[in-house]
Amino acid sequence: MPFRTNHVFARRLTAVALQLLCCGGLLAGIPARGQELAAARQQFLQGNYSEVISQAKAAVAKDPYGSDWRELLVKSLLLTGAYGDAYTNAVAGLTDYSGTIEMRLLAREAALYQNDPAAANQRLAETSRFIQQNPTVARDPEQLVAVGRALLLLGVEPRLVLENCFQPAEKLTPPPREAFLASGQLALDKHDFALAADTFRAGLKQFPNDPDLEGGLARAFETGDRAETLKAITAALTVNPNHIPSLLLLADHLIDAEQYTEAEEQLNQVLEVNPAQPEALAYRAVLASLRSDTVGEEHYRGEALKHWQTNPEVDYLIGRKLAQKYRFAEGAAAQRRALAFEPAYLPARQELGEDLLRLGQNDEGWQLIEGVHQEDAYDITAYNLTVLHTQMATFQTLTNDHFIVHMAPTEAGLYGDQVLDLLSRARATLTRKYGVTLTQPTVVDIFPEQKDFAVRTFGMPDNPGYLGVCFGSVITANSPASQAENPANWEDVLWHEFCHVVTLTASRNRMPRWFSEGISVYEERQANPAWGERMNLGYREMILHGELTPLSRLSSAFLAPKDSQHLLFAYYESSLVIDFIVQRYGFDSLKQILADLGAGREINAAIPAHTAAMPEMEKQFAAFATDLANNLAPKVDLERPPDPGADATAEIWAKAHPDNYYLRMEAAGKLMKAGQWAEAEPVLTEVAAGYHGEKGAENPLWLLAVTQRNRQETNAELATLEHFAGQESDFVDLYVRLINLYTERQDWAGVSKHAWRLLAIDPLLSLPHRALAQAAMATGDDAQAITSYRKLLLLDPPDPVDAHFQLARLLHTRGNAEPEAERQVLQALEEAPRFRDAQRLLLAIKDKTPPANLVPTTDATNQAPQTK
Superfamily assignment of 655-847 in CATH? Predict the structure, then answer.
């Protein structure tokens, strides 16, 4: 809830005073509650709210001076939307029994839902005075937790509240369940999801099957592990089918999965419990907006604000969900509305800052994030982003007419020019193809550390698996430096992400995730047949075993995949749908679908309008995908063998499948392990002739090349590797070997071709830069040689002397760069003072005489470059 900080009280309440207030004389136990009250509380947790209200009203009528039944009554009335009755009973409760902090907080909440924020602030001020005047109030464990919640509203430092109120209450025997709920909620509010999960788990050990604790655990996993979120939601709803927080979180998940009808069903169930529930109505406003129903959006927003007209949570939620659908402009507008209601509402300020960063409005965005961090040093997302902003201040900016690229300085020097060139080619190709006009530059942030990419993209450092993300006019990407031993082809990644820029513009950011990803992967393959996901053995099995996701639910395949293969399959299937549409109905139909999405039409209506009815479309696509799977290698036995067991089943199966791909690959592997290269080669030759579609070292072409290398069949190996290179885009070992083979042959065209391919995978390797420099020198391309040697030296290569010397010689030959030439030759001599060719070159530079054709030698008298 929003609050107006009581700064006077916050200043007075030092750490010592808080410790005395909350911990002095804390009672270790509390009297047992009445059996009827305990049973009613259990009924409340199970969602039998009407029955609880009837019992509580009867109990209050019988004894109006007891606080417990009155508190349960007010909570039940608030939860079911009977806000007027809740306020009346809260005020009566304070009149009859004024010693409970919990009732004061309930009275404040009820006042907000009476459209009376002034009365709510007055209640909070009264609570502040009451706590100061009654320091023993916190001796009761439940009161201690309530005091902590009040102190947070009053602006007391969260750490002090946690350490002096919530955590001491958690350690009591027995502890109150409210302590775990309060600590967990505080962790959620500060985006410390790991701590929140630990806290709710600890609570569940004390209070198993508690729907509130299960619901909190679900929220702790919301941004990370969707499967765990759904598991916890199921556990909560099993105990309480009417548990509003869990129903709302499930609706949120379904909206993310673009299962809008199912989300509406969950919201309907919430509104049956509370017809005025503001979050449920806000979600309905979101759904209306996603359906381009502006009238419905305004209606539901108005209903959500009906009982609390300045509730910033409503517009915050609407804006957050719209931003998650990449509608950042609308999301930012919603956050500004929330802040108009409550300027101190930090969640909206932070979300607005992130929206602006994703819109490329960096100055205001960073300023907002910094302001949130200054006011709330414990918010992890704000802290992460603030640290990242400082780090990004060291980045180098590269620009042209259409792009603003931010990179680490060394990486900018190594391949920043290639980044701009690749992006410019992608822009020219894709804007023309889709008929899109881009009106502003595209910002591209490339991060050498995965955690920095994750913070810039998601606000948190723990989101592995993403190579790049596009927000519309802003792209974030991992650099090869962040990908350890298995870097992806960065050219492929940036082409994919820039395609999102084009299609999001064409659809006005109104496209489902699967459709957007599908077009980008499809365009990867169109740009380069070796890029993007392609049919392989794993995908073939998934298709033939019925694992295609229906088109109407395809976005859900990205949210909680079983494993990484299923996530990649979601990308592949999505691209296959695009391929099918283009092949069967033409590329113009794809563009028309995008136009319809931009006009506000839903995807399940836009696709049939230009193809076929959705049931028929899904049937046609399934047949298309199945046909592709069956024809991956139609003459090859691709059936997967049974798992080897103790019985004879596997052996019998093997005898019945003598030409099986898997068995023959296994046999070839055994021959290679035994060093029987002559026997392995014909097996691999035949296997590769039938099927060679796998990636990397799993491909029989690679194994065949290894076999040929060991048999010293260099010509055959080179031919095999060239064949493999036509379908492989990110296998470093392949291109390293090709460069070495072509260098041995002094085939400089081959060296250059594969050096450029290797640079598209990992420009942080010395080999491709050195290879390009050597090839350029050999072919008289001095400009390219100079560029390549300069880049090589950025990497601190193992043989820097030669690089400095060759660069100096090239610069001296050019004749207009003598100061740099002198500096380079001096650096060579610093490493190798007796290097005679370098000495002669230095004299030539000093004398301004034409250079001799100097080439470093390796004899001892010349003291040639030494490797570090």
Answer: Tetratricopeptide repeat domain (1.25.40.10)
**Contact assessment for residue 732 and residue 487, using Cβ atoms and an 8 Å cutoff:** yes
Q: For the chain, what are the domain ranges?
A: 394-506, 510-632, 655-847
Q: What does DSSP say about strands 403-407 and 442-447: parallel, antiparallel, or unpaired?
A: parallel
CA–centroid distance for 57 within its chain: 49
Sheet containing strand 474-478, edge to edge, reads 396-399, 403-407, 442-447, 474-478, 468-470
Stretch among 400-414, 427-441, 571-585, 851-865 having the lowest mean pLDDT? 851-865
**What's at 813, amino acid-wise?**
T
Beta pairing partners, 163: none
Measured between alpha carbons, how far is 343 from 337 in angstroms, rounded to an integer?
10
- Which residues lie below 8 Å from residue 342, measured CB to CB, with a gap of 6+? 2, 310, 312, 348
Residue 635 tokens read as 């003459």
Given a contact cutoff of 8 angstroms between Cβ atoms, the answer to whether 21 and 131 are in contact is yes
CA distance 694 to 701: 9
Q: Which CATH number fits domain 394-506: 3.20.20.450, 1.10.3210.10, 3.40.30.160, 3.30.830.10?
A: 3.40.30.160
Return the structure tokens found at 703: 């194994």
The two structure tokens encoding residue 7: 């700064």
CA angle 392, 398, 399 (to 5 degrees): 125
Q: Do 644 and 543 touch, CB atoms closer than 8 A? A: no
| Model pLDDT for residues 289-311, shown as the tens digit of each residue | 999 999 999 999 999 999 999 99
- The Cα 54–Cα 268 span in angstroms is 24
The percent helix, strand, coil of the chain (3-state, each to 5) is 70, 5, 30
Alpha-helical regions (H) of 221-345:
226-239, 244-256, 260-273, 278-290, 294-304, 312-324, 328-341
The rounded distance, in Å, linking the Cα atoms of 403 and 444 is 7
Residue type, 534: R
Query: Over the stretch 727-750, which tens digit does the pLDDT of each residue have?
Result: 999 999 999 999 999 999 999 999
Give the count of alpha carbons within 13 A of 20, CB side only.
8
Please report the beta strands in 641-702, taking only residues with DSSP state E, as ranges in sequence order: none
Q: Which of the 8 DSSP states describes residue 407? A: E
pTM of the model: 0.88
Q: Which residues contact 11 (CB under 8 A, 6 or more apart)?
A: none
Q: What gap in Å lies between CA 145 and CA 553, rounded to an integer?
A: 44
Closest CA to 476 of 488, 467, 484: 467
Angle at Cα 639 formed by Cα 634 and Cα 642, nearest 5°?
170
